[in-house]
Structure formats: C-alpha cells, structure tokens
Amino acid sequence: MGRDILQPVVVLIAWTLVMLVWMVVTRLPAMKAAGIDITKVRGSKPGQLDAILPPEKQWVAHNYMHLLEQPTIFYAVALVIAMTGTGDGFNAWLAWGYVGLRIAHSLVQATFNKVSVRFMLFALSTLCLFALTLHAAMAVFGWHMHG
C-alpha cells in the first residue's frame, strides 16, 4: 500500500542514467575534437570544460548535474511518502508530474536550451515538489485536512 510513488522514482533514476550515457557520447568526441587526450589529463576543476568546449556540447553535462541536485530532495520525500503508506493516488500523480517535467526539462536543456522554457518546466516541477513535501509533512506529523 502506498508504493505507487516508487515507480516515478525508478523512472527518474533510469532517466538520469540515460542522461549520463548521453553526456559521455556527447562529451568524449567534443573533447577529442578540442585536442584533449583524457589519458594525459591529470586533475581538473569544475566548469573547466565550459571554457574549452562549445556550449551546446556542455548542455547535456549541465543537465546531468542538475539531475543530481534538486531531484535528491524528490527521492527523499518520495521515500518518506512511500514509508508512510501515502504514495498512491494524488501523491503518485504529483510524483509522475515531477518526473515528466524533469524529463521535459532535460530534453529542452540538452537540445535547444531556451532558458524561458527550462525555467517554466523547472518552476512547475518545483511546485510538484513543494506539494509532495507538504503531503509528506502531513503524513509524518499527523496533520489532517478537515473539510
């Protein structure tokens, strides 16, 4: 009971791995074209490739990093909701909404990367995350809506 929310969790994990593969197959040829021999590189700094590679070759890498940021909150709140047995129904739909919006965000960022579209998708997904967090708090602290 309440485990439906785990399905979108697994889908977002799988999508993150898809973006990892996409990043590797995009970045390695771009690095080679830029004259970077990864067998000879020692150490690096975050963002160092941004100054070397064409921006569109970095978009997938930037999105992969984004999938390791805010979605960590989603994973935690989804697990709390699943453990409280409230992961079915509306909460599952909210989780699917979050995942669908994050996948759409990835596709926008990795392809044409229009910031206004990305921001709208990010904002909508964040609203889903706020609602899930409120519902997790309600379940954990025993708050009930009366009406």
Helix content: 55-70%
- For the termini, the CA-CA separation is 25 Å
> What is the string of helix and strand elements?
HHHHH
CATH superfamily label: Membrane associated eicosanoid/glutathione metabolism-like domain
- CATH fold label: Four Helix Bundle (Hemerythrin (Met), subunit A)
Mean pLDDT: 94
CATH class: Mainly Alpha
- Proportion of residues in β-strands: under 5%
Rounded to an integer in angstroms, the radius of gyration calculated over CA atoms is 18 Å
Structural class: mainly alpha
Level-2 CATH architecture: Up-down Bundle
In the residues, how many domains can be counted?
1
Number of helices: 5
User: How many β-strand runs?
Assistant: 0
